[in-house]
């Protein structure tokens, strides 16, 4: 079977070193790379470009795209002002994510969104986000864990009949590193999984090219967890 080229959206790090003014570094956590390789894919880190025709040429080169975790999405994208307890916003990352999603739509390239990635997908297609879960009394589960990255700390109940439920099963245990989450689900998408306090943990598109989003970090768990391993295998090789 021919190996799939997997485009991985990187992040931005603000670097400050002695003798240098601060500068920006584009990087990807190694876990995303290793997950793609482990599943038989060939990972390619996609450098940021703030020009849509060039972004579209980037996406033409790959078969699948993983939109990774990262900073908060600017709430102005979904018609809200930034709340006091909101996090860091990086305009270049916001703009690039939106252009990548647009290019994938036009070129019919499947997307897997992870953590920030599920949020970017939801916002790009017209949904909204909770800006800070601890402000909402109904959410009582620890969603920004203090345990090791590969440790699952809460359960997710999956919706029967969805692609993600078929891959992951009816109930899974996930890690959790976020303070924002999907609020209003974008038109054309369905909720595939929720935590027991009601936070949306997984979505997928109804029909069309495959678009999946998960709020946890499967790339931190796949080496010790068969469900997370299956998620990457299915996305890269079959969907």
UniProtKB/TrEMBL annotation:
The keyword Glycosyltransferase applies. Gene3D superfamilies: 3.40.50.880. GO terms for cellular component: cytosol. Keywords: Glutamine amidotransferase, Glycosyltransferase, Transferase. GO terms for biological process: polyamine catabolic process. It is an enzyme of class 2 (transferase). It holds the Pfam family Peptidase_C26. PANTHER family: GLUTAMINE AMIDOTRANSFERASE PB2B2.05-RELATED. This is Putative glutamine amidotransferase. It comes from Clostridium liquoris.
